[in-house]
Amino acid sequence: MAKIPNTVFSLRHFLVLSLALNVSFILRMFYDGEVGHNNSSLNRAKANNNVHKSRVVMSSTSSLKNSTCKDLTGSKNRIINLDHGDPTVYERFWRQTGDKSTIIIPGWQSMSYFSDVSNICWFLEAEFAKEVVRLHRVVGNAVTEGRHIVVGTGSSQLFLAALYALSPNHASQPINVVCASPYYSSYPSMTDYLKSGLYKWAGDADSYEKDGPYIELVTSPNNPDGHVRKSKVNRSQGLLVHDLAYYWPQYTPISSPSDHDLTLFTVSKSTGHAGMRIGWALVKDKEVAKKMTKFIELNTIGVSKDSQLRAAKILSAVSDSCEQENSKENESFFKFSHKVMANRWKQLREVVHHSELFSLSQFSPAFCNFFNRVLEPQPAFVWLKCEGNVEDCESFLRAHNIITRSGKHFGVSPKYVRISLLDTDENFTQFLDRLSTIQSL
Amino acid sequence: MAKIPNTVFSLRHFLVLSLALNVSFILRMFYDGEVGHNNSSLNRAKANNNVHKSRVVMSSTSSLKNSTCKDLTGSKNRIINLDHGDPTVYERFWRQTGDKSTIIIPGWQSMSYFSDVSNICWFLEAEFAKEVVRLHRVVGNAVTEGRHIVVGTGSSQLFLAALYALSPNHASQPINVVCASPYYSSYPSMTDYLKSGLYKWAGDADSYEKDGPYIELVTSPNNPDGHVRKSKVNRSQGLLVHDLAYYWPQYTPISSPSDHDLTLFTVSKSTGHAGMRIGWALVKDKEVAKKMTKFIELNTIGVSKDSQLRAAKILSAVSDSCEQENSKENESFFKFSHKVMANRWKQLREVVHHSELFSLSQFSPAFCNFFNRVLEPQPAFVWLKCEGNVEDCESFLRAHNIITRSGKHFGVSPKYVRISLLDTDENFTQFLDRLSTIQSL
């Protein structure tokens, strides 16, 4: 672990911090003023609580199980956990929508296992499917014509369903699964945890040169680094899974509707409803859609109808907000979320710009068909590099009570860390505060 | 396939059929009269629709994908699908409860991945856990003290999580998984579909004689035959998973609280909410609970919060109905469901009693601590045997447009079939009608 530095404050750091705090407070006053809900303080406390509690979770990557956590809000001793991408940043928007996004489910509803058995995906709720198609049309980020929709318990289940569906029947060896590094840190463990004889993790797509069939995962924009991606291997017999969890207007310019064989989306990152555990796949090939459905049948006998119905309501509210946008008071979900992300990235860049210890990726602006103008990408995660002599960026930041995820989990150097930008305003502000005070080793 | 018989009506058959229809109509008048909901006809149509649609599903076991289905209600040509245990029979009770079982979820609620990260099962909603403990106390069917609760996307996911958790680390060979036949038809495929190197299906527990560790599944009351079960193998190094999906007062006398190392329950069969996909495990060993939680994290990153909250509401309504029972108009869920099952079994036994073609298992009555009297088991499935020369009971009934599941899927003779008793009144009555007209080959 790196030495804990003696923190030195300079006037310049105070200025940057003060600017960041101001923007954050103005934003909070503006939005909280419009929320009339009685439970807002309760919920803020809960969100705060989550931050503290969540240090225990994901111990396999952060190894923090035994660390202590003192609840000193605002103090340097408070642990800020930005290890995982918990999308609580969007809660404020959903509080503003009121009844428009509320769902009521009577006790007698949705009791059957079945939704529509004339559909290949027999547990897919028609209302949810309808809203998926509508939202893709409104946003312009995916072709849905000629696709089968398969719903999953989050896109994680659909990722596993895709591996199952794309693995050749009766093969003597498991098929290789590859992804260009830096790749999503859970891909290797999700692929290998059951020691399946159907598929196995084969590492970085950039150095993959084997013959025969393989599965390549293409995450675009990429988790962790936010870059737009295409297939890397470019050999014959490649089966592609496109994970487009972050291909939404708040994160990246929507250049054209995605048009792949098998594409995964999730409400967790699009609308921020991670607790719903709802994802969907757009699948061109009928047999692949059937096998994915079979996987989910054997895995969980379908997907929660309650969450599908709620997701339908939420997606509908997003589409409505886009179609009915007419004033600042009535802004669309994507305008709201784009503004939040833009503010966060602006503040972050200012802090990092004044530091010699850290650096960020540069992104090229591109035309966004949704917002109808040229925009810069503003990813859900910061892919931060520790410059100079800091070899283990995760440990370095951990010494400052900031929990991040090391580059080594993404198949690259520990000089990099992934940091969530989707957390609460409180944690984000604290994070900037902390970062601006770190001047040297 | 068996020859299609020339159906012969006798006075005796008309009498049995008429009796069955009368009981069914009286029941329906009684309950429908108390339902004030506007959507009741819509829902009945939907339920009916499901019956017709569902013939396409589960094609792997019923191979009915290409069969035609004429919608002639009441006609002999109408296909009655009782292949799977879709618990729509309980819908009537839930309609009566009105607002007591309704849940309202605003758009901003339950957005985070996390529920309580101080808990081993960090995605377990506290309210759901509380109601699980309460219901087991009210019913007296399970010890919850000293247990960790792990929530799953149905008990299917928990079954897989249990296999993962109980498999030894770093073993050179997969651990054997066994269950005494007749066993639940999905156990073999669920165990083997990913060709896991951790565990593999090893068939009938009765004939299992290998040394070393193994996992034994104990389903009690058993699916398909309804009998109370204990572990069969009785060797050292056995790891037991108790699947108690049907250990509820409507199906079997509650003799004592179950007290095992790892026990699975599900709302699908207890309250009838299969569409929720919520199950729970009671786990004695902390490390096993941790590994099960890890499985669910890698499989689906948690379990729908919406469904957990709804399940909490439903379980609470069941406990309330037991604690507040004071009149016929205010009967408990278990009194209602016990009565429905008792009526169905009575009618079924009458029909089968008059037939020389079919036979049923006999069950010993036992004292039920919940109802405080001696009662007979009345399983969720009929385990029907075709007598005489009928070797393939599934095909024989299929020729009469009744879809059932053959004994061969449960590891035994095709002279047996499993038939769901949890379907709608309409289908049950039609089924009895059809059965009473089948006199000979």
TrEMBL record, chains A, B:
<dbReference type="InterPro" id="IPR015424">
    <property type="entry name" value="PyrdxlP-dep_Trfase"/>
</dbReference>
<feature type="domain" description="Alliinase C-terminal">
    <location>
        <begin position="80"/>
        <end position="438"/>
    </location>
</feature>
<keyword id="KW-0808">Transferase</keyword>
<dbReference type="InterPro" id="IPR006948">
    <property type="entry name" value="Alliinase_C"/>
</dbReference>
<dbReference type="GO" id="GO:0006520">
    <property type="term" value="P:amino acid metabolic process"/>
</dbReference>
<dbReference type="Pfam" id="PF04864">
    <property type="entry name" value="Alliinase_C"/>
</dbReference>
<comment type="similarity">
    <text>Belongs to the alliinase family.</text>
</comment>
<keyword id="KW-0663">Pyridoxal phosphate</keyword>
<feature type="signal peptide">
    <location>
        <begin position="1"/>
        <end position="20"/>
    </location>
</feature>
<dbReference type="InterPro" id="IPR037029">
    <property type="entry name" value="Alliinase_N_sf"/>
</dbReference>
<dbReference type="GO" id="GO:0016846">
    <property type="term" value="F:carbon-sulfur lyase activity"/>
</dbReference>
<dbReference type="InterPro" id="IPR015422">
    <property type="entry name" value="PyrdxlP-dep_Trfase_small"/>
</dbReference>
<keyword id="KW-0732">Signal</keyword>
<dbReference type="GO" id="GO:0008483">
    <property type="term" value="F:transaminase activity"/>
</dbReference>
<comment type="subunit">
    <text>Homodimer.</text>
</comment>
<protein>
    <submittedName>
        <fullName>Putative transaminase</fullName>
        <ecNumber>2.6.1.-</ecNumber>
    </submittedName>
</protein>
<keyword id="KW-0032">Aminotransferase</keyword>
<dbReference type="InterPro" id="IPR015421">
    <property type="entry name" value="PyrdxlP-dep_Trfase_major"/>
</dbReference>
<dbReference type="InterPro" id="IPR050478">
    <property type="entry name" value="Ethylene_sulfur-biosynth"/>
</dbReference>
